[in-house]
Amino acid sequence: MSRIGKLPINIPNGITVEINGNNVTVKGSNGILERSFSPLIHINKDGDQIIVTRDSDEKNVRALHGTTRAVIQNMVTGIQTGFTKILEIQGVGYKAELEGTGLVVSVGFSHPVNVEAPEGIVFDVTEKNRIITIKGANKEVVGQVAADIRKLRPPEPYKGKGIRYQGERVRRKAGKTAGAI
């Protein structure tokens, strides 16, 4: 058995989980998340716990077992507390501003870049327009939106300018030396 897959998922108070075959719906104060899973994996609700099991011991089914359990756990955690990613902007003149529910990012292009917030995602900009906080209940969407924003201007290795995750270390390179023959 998978070490992660065999662990039960506890359902906290205030959250309801509905299982219809391999469709799982999690409802709570932060919204509703719904997802379909592979028919090779069996998902059962036992009181205030969710149990994920499998019939086969094939390699791809074993991989699905742990992944399915982790995704369901992330759905429950997202509805309960939510997920957050924090991005830092470094560089002279680089900034981000809120505009309605979206984000306007100025990172050295001839024009500002508009980033629309997908459903369930909330942006927050603080500390002199240099820190972007992305919040939401769906871990996958929060991570993808953060990656898309970072992809606008990834940190470059010579001056370190760009958009990076909070705590990310950028390997710096030495520049060319003048007059070295």
Describe this entry's structure for a reader:
By secondary structure, this protein is an alpha+beta fold. It folds into two domains: 9-80, Alpha-Beta Complex (Outer Surface Protein A, domain 3), CATH 3.90.930; 83-165, Outer Surface Protein A, domain 3 (Alpha-Beta Complex). Helix content is 20%, strand content 38%. It is built from two helices and 13 strands; from the N terminus they run E-E-E-E-E-E-H-E-E-E-E-E-E-H-E.
Q: Over all CA atoms, what is the radius of gyration? A: 21 Å
Shape: elongated
What value does the average pLDDT take?
90
CATH superfamily of the largest domain: Ribosomal protein L6
Reported for the largest beta sheet, the result is: 4 strands, antiparallel
The low-confidence runs, each spanning 5 or more residues with pLDDT under 50, are: none
Count of the domains: 2
- Estimated share of beta-strand residues: 35-45%
CATH level-3 fold name of the largest domain = Outer Surface Protein A, domain 3
Question: Which CATH C-level class of the largest domain is it?
Answer: Alpha Beta
Q: Which structural category do the helix and sheet elements fall into?
A: alpha+beta
- Strand tally is 13
Question: Reading side by side through the largest sheet, how are the strands ordered?
Answer: 11-12-7-13
What is the end-to-end distance?
A: 63 Å
Topology pattern, helix = H, strand = E:
EEEEEEHEEEEEEHE
Which architecture of the largest domain does the CATH hierarchy give at level 2? Alpha-Beta Complex
Q: How many H/I helices?
A: 2
Tell me the helix content.
10-25%
